[in-house]
Structure formats: structure tokens, C-alpha cells
Amino acid sequence: MSILFIKNMVCNRCIMVVENELEKLDLDFTNITLGEVTLAKELNPDKRNALEAALIPLGFEVIDDKKSRIIEKIKNSIIDLVHHQDNDTKSNLSDLLSEKLNHDYNYLSNLFSDVEGTTIEKYFIAQKVEKVKELLVYDELSLSEIALRLNYSSVAYLSNQFKKVTGLTPSHFKQIREEKRKPLDKV
User: Fold this and answer.
1) Which pLDDT tens digit goes with each residue over 54-94?
2) Buried b (16+ CB within 10 A) or exposed e, 6-21
3) Contact yes or no for 158/170 (Cβ under 8 A)
4) Which residue, of 48, 79, 89, 153, has the fewest CB within 10 Å?
5) What is the C-alpha to C-alpha distance for residues 34 and 78, in angstroms, rounded to an integer?
6) CB within 8 A of 89, min separation 6: which ones?
7) Is 1-64 a CATH 3.30.160.390 domain?
């Protein structure tokens, strides 16, 4: 059994694409999650090269060095937390990442900042703002419900953070999106 770490896997579609490539190459795997593939056995160099060649055009990359794997695990943990879980946890991000990655948060934070050129907190906020955009476009939840779902302390705090990142208020963003959308009979 061996584990491959794969960069840029951010959603369930990414998992399906990687799974498809593994099947095309007839590689036995036991599990696929964001950023990780557990193979039934170690890859020989030819199979590994073939897999890497298949993944690169699709925007993925097999990661070998430890620091890159940690960075990718941080990103995938944040993406999973913001986009794929009902965020009812009251723990803070630093505790969650430290526990999940078995590293001191200061180490994780410094490594992330050095490599990515931004802080973990800014990356986390950017992911939350992307989720807010998605939920605004779906138009199924009020801003209060979105704030509650994403653990914002208030609608005002969500709005301020949204405006700081995008330059728009949530309502202005929603208005612009609606103006761009054409009715079906006009398409």
C-alpha cells in the first residue's frame, strides 16, 4: 500500500477525474480523498510517470516533497471545512489545523506564508467569501442564514469581510449577477 499526494484537488469532481485516470491506467486504489490517493501497492517508475503525464494536462500534480504536501493538506482541510461540511464547529481554525495535521500552528502558518505569499487566515477568508458568492448566486438563503451557516458572528461582519475582499457589498454583488443573467427566452 502507498499514498500519493496530489496537488489541486479541490472538489468531488476532481476526485472523479483522478479516479477515472487511475482506472484508465489500470491502477488499483483503495481510497481517494481531496489531495490523497491510497494505492493498493507501490507504483513502479513507469506507472508513476504515466500517471503524472495523465494528471498534469488536467491541472493536477503529484507532490513529492514534505513541505508541499503539508501546504496542500492545509488548503484541502480549509476547502473541506468551508465548502463541504455543515460548519457547525465552534473550534478555531488554528486548533483544527494543528490537530488534523499533527503540527504546531506556528510552524504551519510560517510554512504556508513563506510558500504561498499569503497567510492561512487570508486563504481561509478567501474561501469563505467564495462560498458566500456561491450561496448568493443560488439565492436560496438569506444573508443572515449564510452568516449563520459560515459561522460569522453577524451579518455586518460577513458584509464587511466580503466588501474588503471583493470591493462590493453582498447585495451589490447579487444585483450585478442578476443583471448579467438573461431570461431563458432571451438566450
Assistant:
1) 999 999 999 888 888 899 999 999 998 888 776 555 678 89
2) bbbbbeeebbebbeeb
3) yes
4) 153
5) 11
6) 81, 96, 151
7) no
